[in-house]
Amino acid sequence: MISISVRGLTKTFGEVKALDDLSLDIEPGELFFLLGPSGCGKTTLLRSMAGFYTPDAGRIFFGREEVTRVPAHKRNTGMMFQSYALWPHLTVEKNVAFGLEERKVSRREIRRRVREALESVRMDEYAARKPNQLSGGQQQRVALARALVIRPQCLFLDEPLSNLDAKLRLEMRGEIRRICKEFELTAVYVTHDQKEALAMSDRLAVLDSGKLLQVGTPWEIYRRPASETVAHFIGETNFVEGVIMRSGAGMASVDTALGEFQGVCSNGNGDQAEGTKVLLSIRPESWRLDRFRDETNSIPGKIRKTVYLGEISQHEFESGESTLKVFELNPRFLGDVAGQEFYASVDPEDVVVLGRPPDSAGPGS
Ligand code: ATP
Predict the structure, then answer these.
(1) Ligand 1, atom 11: nearest CA belongs to which residue?
(2) By C-alpha distance, which of 182, 183, 169 is closest to 82?
(3) How far is the CA of 210 from the centre of ligand 1 (A)?
(4) Global pTM?
(5) Do both 129 and 151 map to the same domain?
């Protein structure tokens, strides 16, 4: 297993800085995801690591070996794209064998390795078929076998599941993760699908404008976003503006238009000075609705609108001048509660205190 390290990577296309002095360390054997808004540089970073782009500045290492200028086909990596890119006139077996034939591997060894790769993706029964005789999911499995057969040390995946329907996508999530772990691959995966990233990754990076905003486990990124941009990009959240009253040991009391809130400081040190402007991020599913006020972080209000989705209700909860998104799992409060007073309460653990740039006028303004 090898690590992948990127140091000060910059890549420009004309006027656009697709990667801006970006540094990143991916651990050996890690399944690492790149996430971020469209155009943030995910594909450019993946392609630079795979060797399809030469950066303008910066260095890339596989383990201790520098590969910045090593061409793609000499990096011993596998690549899997959104389009399966299988040869339509070749059988499954021949498609998978292709990379080995180019490498002048003996016929016996090719047969053995192709069988092994097809077995690992559970496609050995389909070896004699042509791609157009396979479903989308099966074609994607063949594409994965083709990437694995050369025994790569790293696997790069660019939106590999986006052509599949929802059910197959779910199934393939588990398959890809199983295979990456079984083959002890260091894998880098680009996706637009946040759920896919949260469900599959060991760690993920959120990018914006060619820069890294945050790297962490799914739990850290979702529950402890380091900035407004990350909190906004991953999942849904409520932002509440406030001012620090007290802080210490990673916790803070914050004065807001909705009342006082206790929360966790996103930077973890909790030493923000009294009077510092901050932003609270509170996920809709972390609120509890009840008729009674809790001791902390409890605000009165009314349910103005509800979308009932069976297992969950999505409420618009109006408190003073603010409207908050409040999700209720296993919903009790349905359409007959309009106008009744409720309390929405949240644990301090679920309130993230984020810094606010000095010139920030707050979200939505
Ligand atoms: P998406 O999620 O939409 O696929 P991305 O995060 O993968 O986006 P990149 O494809 O890496 O983003 O693109 C980063 C920026 O570089 C974008 O502004 C894009 O328009 C630009 N860019 C990427 N490739 C090229 C190219 N070959 N020529 C010119 N500009 C490019």
Answers:
(1) 41
(2) 169
(3) 10
(4) 0.89
(5) yes
